[in-house]
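Q: Here's a chain of 419 amino acids. Please give me its 3D structure as C-alpha cells.
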Amino acid sequence: MKRYDLIAVALTISLLTLTGCGKKNEISDRKVDEDPSQTLSFFGNKYEPANVEVIENILNGYIEENKDINITYESLKGSNYYDALHNRESSGNLDDLFMINHNTFLEFSENGSLADLSDLADDIPFSADMQNQMKAKDGKTYWLPTTVSAFGLYCNLDLLKEHGQKVPATLDEWIKVCDSFVSQGITPIIANNDISLKTLAIAKGFYPLYKEGIQAEVFSGLNSQEENLSTYLTDGFALAKNFCEKGYIDAAAALETEKTSDDLEAFVEGTQPFMLTGVWAAGRVKGMDPAFTFKVVPYPVLDDGSVLVVNPDVRLSVSAKSGAQEAAQDFISYFFEEENLWKFTDNQSSFSPLEDEYAPSLDEIQDIVSHYQTQTPVIGSDSHIDFPIWDITADVSKKLLAGQNLTELMRWMDEQAVQ
C-alpha cells in the first residue's frame, strides 16, 4: 500500500480518528513521490469519521487515475461550515469545489458565484424528480445532488413492547401512544432545535400539495407573494406546539438539543420511545450500540397514514471564478460513478439521486425505503421556493420551543418569506 500525507490544519491527525469535535480539518491526499501540476480545493460539511473515510477513498481513487492532480478536502461541522462558506464567497475566496444547500444556492446564484454545470448534469443519469429540482429558472444547473436524504421517526421497539405499544402508523395512533407514556411520567419524543419541528410541520402542511401535484403552482404563488406561507404551515406548527403543550416533547430541553448529536445520545439511553431527526443518523445510532432494537419510520401525521420528508442533499457546486473548472467537473463526474456514489449514499443511509433506484441497505430504515419507493414524498426545501425556507422554518421552530405565541409567530414567518 502506498503512503499518503494526511495533513490537518494546526494538528497532524489520523483521518480515521476524527472525532467531529474540532473546529476545522483539512485533508490533503498526495503521493509523496509525485509532484502534481494542479491542486483542487474541496470544502464540505461532511465531517463525521465514516463520511470522511468514504470521501477519502473517492479522492484516492481519482488521484490514482489522475496523477497530475491533487485534491485537498477541508471540512467544518454544522452551522460553522455555512458561516465560513459565506465568508469565503463574500471575500472572493471560494474553493474550487464545495457543498451548498438550498439557502446558499439562492444567495450565491444571485451573486453569480456558481459555475454552470449543465453539460455535466446532462451526462449523469439523474432521476426525473432530481432533474426537476436541479434546473434553475434560467434553464441552467448550478449544483448536483449526491444524495437524497430523509427525515424520520426513530422508534425504540423494546420500550414500546415493554409498555404494550406498537409503532404508530397514523396520527391518532401516535397520539394515543404518546398519551400512554405521558401518563406514566415519560416524555415520549426527543426533538432537536433545528430539523425536528420544521420537518414535522412541513410533512403535515405540504403533503396535500404533493399528493395533488399542485406544489409548483402553490410555490409560485408564495414566491410572488400572492399567498402566505402560513396558509400551508400553520396546521403543522400547531401540531408541533400541541405536542409540546401535552408534554410529548420537552420544549425547554429540545431548545438546547443539537441535531444528530445531543438527540442521538438521549435516544440511545433507552428511556424514551421516539426521536425526530435525520435518517442519515441511523447508522451512527446503531454504531453507538444501544441496548435495544429500533427502526425508523415516516412521520405518522395523517389520519390515514404517514408522510416522508426528503431533500436533495450534499449538493456539489463549482466556483464560477475557479481556474480549475474543467478538473473540478471531471472529479465530480468520477464522484458520480456507480461504485463511488453507491458507497457514499449507503454510508449516509440516504437514497441515490440517480434513476438507478439504489436504496440504502441498513435494516433499521427499510420502512423508510419502502415508503420512498411506493408513496409520494414531500421535499423539505423544494427548489421551486425562492426564499430560504429551511432557515426560516428552523428559526420558527426555535421560537416555538421558546414559547412564542403561534399566531404572532406565523405572522413573523410570513414577513421573513417576503424579505
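Q: Can you summarize the key feature?
A: The chain is about 45% helix and 15% strand.
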